[in-house]
Design a protein that fits this description.
The protein has 234 residues and is an alpha/beta fold. It has one domain: Vaccinia Virus protein VP39 (Rossmann fold, 3-Layer(aba) Sandwich), CATH 3.40.50.150. 45% of the residues lie in helices and 21% in strands. The two termini are 26 Å apart. The mean pLDDT is 87.
């Protein structure tokens, strides 16, 4: 997995949310949470597994909406942040966080109603293996996002500390088919990449987001989008 040492550092976990979801990054957080909710809804009383849960921003959000959720991550430091987030939300006894390997999930077949991973597949060295495991333990929905190769993402990808794997639509469709899944829906966003939004104030991000959606709302715009959301079913 790319950047494991970087990702698991205590300092990275402590600053992760503040660096990525302040300023214009708040818009990214809102959009990603909406994508997860749209893919998994309704979540109340559903058994959900989040792969690479990080600091638990999706885990806690879904628990607040009544999901029976497990958050799995390889980083103890990230899991500690997630547990603290759950504690502050009054959900410490509701959400389960556990350390584990996404390539060997410690659950039986069809154990969850839905399995999802956000900000994960751009780091995956063996994406087919990870997706097959997600499909194995889900009895309904598998949801994940990818970064696209035909986008502005390529312009700053080299500067990221852990690198980033970029995907074409054809590659993702092959992965989905290879995991025995069927594509239910795909959505594409962020012609202006994440790095741009994180650098501008929140008040500036919103007008650019409107322009972003206008550009991305057609076939050409889809090809320029830097992020894709994939909802598949077993």
């Amino acid at each position: 997995m790319k950047g494991q040492e970087w990702y698991q550092a205590d300092s990275v976990a402590e600053e992760y949310d503040a660096k990525r979801f302040s300023k214009g990054g708040r818009l990214i957080d809102r959009r990603e949470k909406r994508a997860v909710l749209e893919a998994l809804a309704p979540v109340e009383d559903e058994r959900v597994l989040e792969i690479a849960c990080g600091t638990g921003r999706f885990t806690v959000m879904l628990a607040e909406r009544g999901a029976d959720i497990v958050g799995l991550d390889i980083s103890d430091a990230m899991l500690a942040q997630g547990r603290e987030k759950a504690r502050r939300a009054g959900l410490a006894d509701t959400v389960e966080f556990m350390r584990g390997d996404a390539a060997r999930l410690p659950f039986p077949d069809d154990h969850f109603d839905a399995v999802f991973a956000m900000r994960f597949f751009h780091l995956a060295d063996t994406p087919a293996k990870f997706l097959a495991e997600m499909a194995r333990v889900s009895k309904d929905v598998v949801f994940f996002d990818t970064f696209r190769g035909s986008s502005f993402r390529t312009l700053y990808n080299w500067a990221l500390p852990m690198g980033s794997r970029l995907y074409s639509r054809e590659e993702v469709e092959r992965l989905i088919d290879g995991a025995g899944l069927s594509l239910r829906q795909d959505d594409h966003d962020f012609v202006f990449p994440y790095g741009f939004y994180r650098e501008v104030p929140n008040s500036v991000a919103d007008p650019f987001w409107s322009l972003d959606q206008a550009i991305g709302g057609n076939a050409v715009g889809e090809k320029l989008s830097s992020v894709s959301y994939w909802t598949a079913e077993v």
